[in-house]
Design goal:
Elements: E1 10-16, E2 37-42, E3 48-51, H1 57-67, E4 72-76, H2 82-85, E5 100-106, H3 113-118, E6 136-142, E7 147-149, E8 152-158, E9 166-172, E10 175-180, H4 194-204, E11 209-213, H5 232-241, E12 246-250, H6 258-268, E13 277-280, E14 286-288
Parallel strand pairs: 3-4, 4-5, 5-6, 10-11, 11-12, 12-13
Antiparallel strand pairs: 1-2, 1-14, 2-3, 7-8, 8-9, 9-10
Bound molecules: zinc ion (2 copies).
Length: about 290
């Protein structure tokens, strides 16, 4: 938790940086093996703010319970693919009666936030059912317009992804953070959708921080078209066009080992002059702004 008056306006920590499925093999431990989960701590904010509940939310929940200070908070879930919700039943604060958890997600074809999230808490899938969660839980089906909360605001646009998926924009402390872990950009040379790209560029215009899908390389992309993910080179190009200041590339493919990602991190230096910072998201590391 950051205190009001701190020179640091935001502490950002990745608790999960992988797409699809956790991959906790030794060759992935530098960048991390958990699926999508990000914690944003803005100065002076006494409620926790979490993006997605992939497997990384399990250790985050342990940390919050051990720290014992923040008993209230928000989880903004982009969409209900497994790698963004599979950690939810293991988030300790939902079992703590002194906790208030507000969970936000856009409407899905199969139902609203509550229906979709508690749908996995049935005896077929898991021994704990929704009525056994002791915390006070509010399930919020999020609408795209700007909503103001205690110390921050959130809006979203829909990503290019097979299901309704939010690209969240969070504003607080004079900083704009955009979170787009699952979003398909179609490269220009493959006749991409220019309207969507322009809309996204406008949404990301001059953002302080963009966290974007980088699941593929440009070489891999043509065989994975319409799977809902981007090549890191194209995500970088889009971010530079939008004037994004600090870019984090995330949702690493489970097959991208530390060795692959370390090589990619070197390649990123070619783009460094177009950003204040550009890096691959790494689990467990704090980034201060
Ligand atoms: Zn995903
Ligand atoms: Zn997805």
């Amino acid at each position: 938790m950051l205190h009001a008056g701190s020179k640091t306006r935001l502490k950002l920590r990745f608790w999960g940086v992988r797409g699809s499925i956790p991959c906790p093999e030794p060759e992935n431990m530098l960048y991390g093996g958990n699926t999508s989960c990000v914690q944003l701590c803005f100065a002076g904010q006494d409620e926790y703010l979490i993006l997605d509940s992939g497997s990384g939310i399990r250790p985050l929940g342990v940390y919050l319970e051990e720290e014992g200070i923040q008993k209230k908070g928000h989880i903004f879930i982009t969409h209900a693919h497994w790698d963004h919700i599979q950690g939810f039943p293991f988030f300790k604060p939902i079992y703590d009666a002194s906790n208030v958890v507000r969970i936000h997600m856009p409407e899905q074809e199969s139902g609203d936030c509550k229906q979709v999230l508690t749908g996995q808490l049935t005896p077929t899938h898991f021994p704990v059912t929704a009525d056994m969660l002791n915390a006070h839980i509010d399930y919020v089906t999020q609408s795209p317009g700007r909503q103001d909360y205690n110390g921050f605001s959130v809006s979203f646009m829909l990503a290019n992804h097979p299901v309704a998926t939010a690209i969240y924009k969070i504003e607080s402390q004079g900083l704009t953070v955009i979170y787009a872990p699952d979003n398909e950009l179609v490269p220009e040379h493959l006749a991409g959708n220019r309207d969507f790209r322009n809309q996204l560029i406008a949404f990301c215009r001059d953002a302080d921080i963009l966290i974007h899908d980088s699941n593929y390389t440009l070489e891999m992309y043509p065989n994975r078209r319409n799977w809902g993910h981007s090549a890191w080179e194209d995500a970088t190009e889009m971010a530079a066009e939008a004037g994004v200041k600090n870019l984090f590339l995330t949702h690493h493919d489970p097959t991208a080992t530390d060795s692959v990602l370390s090589d990619r991190a070197i390649q990123l230096s070619e783009y460094a002059h177009r950003f204040v910072s550009i890096q691959l998201a790494r689990e467990g590391k704090d980034y201060l702004f």
